């Protein structure tokens, strides 16, 4: 049924820290890898080694330049995947009931066997979170790794979305955003987490944490590296190498 | 937005087809029962255009063999409602055609056929008008434009058929000219509103970084293309846009209005009405191509380089 649940007790989602993300795209690759072998049909590429490769991705990292009125611009790496919206427009437009939002945890999923590949849900999503698989011709989207997070066949620390598990910078966090005591909710409260495109009225569950303000003063002058090197040469080695040094000098 | 040929043909053809069925129904309701050649030609063209459009709409699907599933979600989805309503309207039109064939007046069935034909066109327009992501479509004038074009197309075709098969169209060409005039009035208002409305979503609101300054994309997520850029990033040059609008207005509006007026004055009415119908449908194909090609989607704010 493509009607949305009135409310969900649990709202699983991601919190993405734009201050910490280094733009390495590891989350993109791990997402592609997991979802090619996991839930639903393989996440395909078309013409992968040709002139115009075109692949389906559930997570993409953009890089933005943010230019203030005065002063230097800031570069912000910006991972973007499905935000598992409370009021998901992609779900209600679906004519077949293939798109649905789970009442138990708020995850938005696609039943690929019922998808006719009309593409209307991709048109309805303001964020570009849905992509048509170029081979299977069904709609693909982030599942929040529903086949990992409840999976008792894998070790407990792996029961989080693949992108979160992979992120080497710790820029991605996973949890229940409906529980004010959860780590992700506390993080959002402490850092001023925000919604993307609030004007679209989608009520996204995923939150983004803003980059921290830049160091206001220029970095203090450092001592000259040549001086430091000269000082280092003066220090005498100690221990075995010190004895060896002295012994060799005496020879 | 990417203008898929199957969808352009679908909206133009089924809009005109349901317009003809509505015209047949309204004629019967008013006691001007379509008979003989007018009856046969009217229903063949009405059913032909509407069904050709509906069949064409399945061509852009990834899995056309599952299209029947689209009839299930009428409670929430306009696309599903459109499918269900089209079937109801066609079934009513079939019953209406049968009742006329058996010598009935078909007043009630005619009225129902007209009502459901127009509700179907309305639901087609709502598939687009509901999308907040495409600001140009998401305005109250969108259903008005679709309905007016459907009615105008139906009236034009019906007037031509009446001229050919019933030996005269009476006031029909004048009515058709008025409807064409109204439809283009609505369309010009729709263009104006789409061109001048303040932008809803910006790169700043899309990234939430507006407080830090002006946002632009420095590096795209991938060097290659993707589905989003293909589907939502379709662009046409501003130069072509202005030229195409002129072509659409000229073919779909000005030519049919003058041709129907000449016909109503008794000047080669059959020829001028045929010309009006063909020019109108040609102009509408250009108008519908622009409907998609001009529309900008909010996801492109993530790909703005300027």
Automatic annotation (TrEMBL), chain A:
PROSITE patterns linked: 4FE4S_FER_1, 4FE4S_FER_2
Domain of life: Bacteria
SUPFAM superfamilies documented for this protein: 4Fe-4S ferredoxins
Keywords: 4Fe-4S, Iron, Iron-sulfur, Metal-binding
Compositionally biased residues, Pro residues: 210-220
Record-linked Pfam families: Fer4_11, Fer4_4
GO molecular function list: 4 iron, 4 sulfur cluster binding; metal ion binding
InterPro entries: 4Fe4S_Fe-S-bd, 4Fe4S_Fe_S_CS, ET_IronSulfur_Cluster-Binding
Transmembrane segments: none
4Fe-4S ferredoxin-type domain boundaries: 12-42, 72-104, 106-135
Ranges where the record places region Disordered: 201-220
The protein's name in its UniProt record: 4Fe-4S dicluster domain-containing protein
Organism: Rhodophyticola porphyridii
TrEMBL record, chain B:
Sample GO molecular function, one term: dimethyl sulfoxide reductase activity
Keyword terms: Membrane, Transmembrane, Transmembrane helix
UniProt GO BP: anaerobic electron transport chain
Presence of keyword Transport: no
One CC-aspect GO term: plasma membrane
InterPro entries attached to this UniProt entry: DmsC
Transmembrane segments: 7-32, 38-62, 83-102, 108-129, 141-161, 167-186, 247-265, 271-291
Protein name in UniProt: Dibenzothiophene desulfurase
């Amino acid at each position: 049924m493509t009607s949305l649940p009135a409310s969900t007790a649990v709202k699983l989602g991601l919190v993405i820290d734009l201050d910490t993300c280094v733009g390495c795209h590891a989350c993109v690759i791990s997402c592609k890898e997991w979802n090619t072998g996991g839930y639903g049909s393989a996440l395909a590429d078309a013409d992968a080694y040709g002139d115009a490769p075109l692949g389906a991705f559930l997570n993409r990292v953009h890089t933005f330049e943010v230019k203030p009125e005065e002063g230097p611009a800031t570069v912000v790496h910006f991972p973007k995947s499905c935000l598992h919206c409370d009021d998901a427009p992609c779900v209600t437009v679906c004519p077949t009931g293939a798109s649905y939002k789970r009442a138990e945890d708020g995850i938005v999923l696609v039943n690929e066997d019922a998808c006719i590949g009309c593409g209307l849900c991709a048109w309805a999503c303001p964020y570009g979170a849905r992509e048509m698989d170029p081979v299977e011709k069904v709609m693909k989207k982030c599942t929040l790794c529903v086949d990992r997070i409840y999976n008792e066949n894998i070790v407990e620390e792996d029961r989080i979305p693949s992108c979160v598990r992979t992120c080497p910078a710790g820029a991605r966090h996973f949890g229940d955003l409906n529980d004010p005591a959860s780590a992700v909710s506390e993080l959002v409260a402490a850092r001023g987490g925000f919604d993307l495109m609030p004007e679209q009225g989608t009520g996204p569950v995923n939150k983004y944490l803003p980059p921290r303000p830049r160091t206001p003063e220029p970095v203090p002058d450092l001592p000259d590296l040549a001086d430091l090197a000269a000082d280092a040469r003066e220090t005498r080695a100690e221990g075995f190498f010190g004895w060896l040094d002295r012994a060799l000098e005496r020879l | 937005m990417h203008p898929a040929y199957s969808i352009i043909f679908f909206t133009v053809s089924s809009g005109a087809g349901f317009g003809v069925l509505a015209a047949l129904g309204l004629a019967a309701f008013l006691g001007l029962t379509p008979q003989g050649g007018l009856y046969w030609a009217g229903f063949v063209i009405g059913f032909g255009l509407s069904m050709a459009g509906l069949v064409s709409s399945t061509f852009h699907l990834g899995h056309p063999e599952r299209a029947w599933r689209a009839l299930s979600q009428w409670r929430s989805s306009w696309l599903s409602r459109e499918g269900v309503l089209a079937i109801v309207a066609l079934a009513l039109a079939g019953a209406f055609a049968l009742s006329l064939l058996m010598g009935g007046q078909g007043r009630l069935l005619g009225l129902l056929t007209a009502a459901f034909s127009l509700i179907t066109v309305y639901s087609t327009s709502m598939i687009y008008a509901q999308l907040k992501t495409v600001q140009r479509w998401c305005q109250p004038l969108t259903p008005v434009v679709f309905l007016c074009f459907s009615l105008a197309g139906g009236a034009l075709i019906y007037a031509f058929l009446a001229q050919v098969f019933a030996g005269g169209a009476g006031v029909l060409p004048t009515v058709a000219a008025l409807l064409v005039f109204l439809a283009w009035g609505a369309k010009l208002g729709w263009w104006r509103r789409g061109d001048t409305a303040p932008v809803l979503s910006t790169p700043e609101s899309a990234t939430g970084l507006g407080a830090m300054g002006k946002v632009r994309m420095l590096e795209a997520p991938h060097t290659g293309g993707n589905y989003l850029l293909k589907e939502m990033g379709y662009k046409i040059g501003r130069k072509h846009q202005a030229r195409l609008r002129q072509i659409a207005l000229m073919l779909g509006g000005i030519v049919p209005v003058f041709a129907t007026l000449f016909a109503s004055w008794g000047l080669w009415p059959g020829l001028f009405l045929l010309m009006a119908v063909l020019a109108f449908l040609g102009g509408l194909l250009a108008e519908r191509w622009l409907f998609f090609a001009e529309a900008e989607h909010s996801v492109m704010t993530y790909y703005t380089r300027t």
